[in-house]
Amino acid sequence: MALPVLSHPIFDLTVPSTKDQITYRPFLVKEEKILLLAQEADNLKDLTRSVKQIINNCIIEGSIDVDHAPTFDIEYIFLKLRSNSVSDIAKFNIVDPDTGKEIEVEIDLKIVEIHNTEGHSKDIVLNDQVSLLMKYPTYEILKKVNVSDTNEVSATFEMIKHCIDKVTVGEDEVHEFKDYSNTEVDNFVDSLTSQSFQDIQKFFDTMPKLQHDVDYKIGKKRKTRTFSGLSDFFAYA
Description:
- By secondary structure, the protein is α+β, with helices and mostly antiparallel strands.
- The chain folds into 2 domains: 11-112, no CATH class; 123-206, no CATH class.
- Helix content is 38%, strand content 27%.
- The chain has a 4-stranded antiparallel β-sheet. Strands 1-2-3 form a 3-stranded antiparallel β-sheet. A 3-stranded antiparallel β-sheet has the order 6-11-12.
- Strand 9 and strand 10 (173-176) form a beta hairpin.
- The protein is globular.
- The chain starts with 10 loop residues before the first strand and ends with a helix.
């Protein structure tokens, strides 16, 4: 006699950047083992790889390219997966920066959403003729850029080069940035004005992000800790 086949609930979710619908099941013991092994490794690379694998395993309708989707999409999908698979409530131990004391806080994952900054735009005007269309960082891009590089300036320039999607000149001349050599790309980025560079940095600073503020009490004071991104949320998942 065969062992019974277990059924599982399914959930619908809207992908933040595209508004596409996907359907997923909770992650099972096999996915939980993947995550636990990544947490034991205690590095962002292994955690990211595990998160992508778990998402691919659990989506049963619809699709998302986990390597090329914006990082905030992947973080959001995984957070909702975790919420429906383990518990809506996640407990975190944080260290108060002023006292050094460890405090336990709780987050209701059902209410965590993508934070959007008013006025954010992917279009950046360089002058009256030339403009840029930016694209959001993906985990594939982060892997190429090596954000852990101690040379912050070098990493910043690499991120900019990978996230410029198109260059538009006039009304109908469009250049796909990926079609040009590294030398041509470097020369173009080096020719940007300081103001244009600041406008590009603003794109990254204001892009959508998975973010949630948690209030906690230390002594007689009430404080706020902001959780944002993969390492803040998922290292404790």
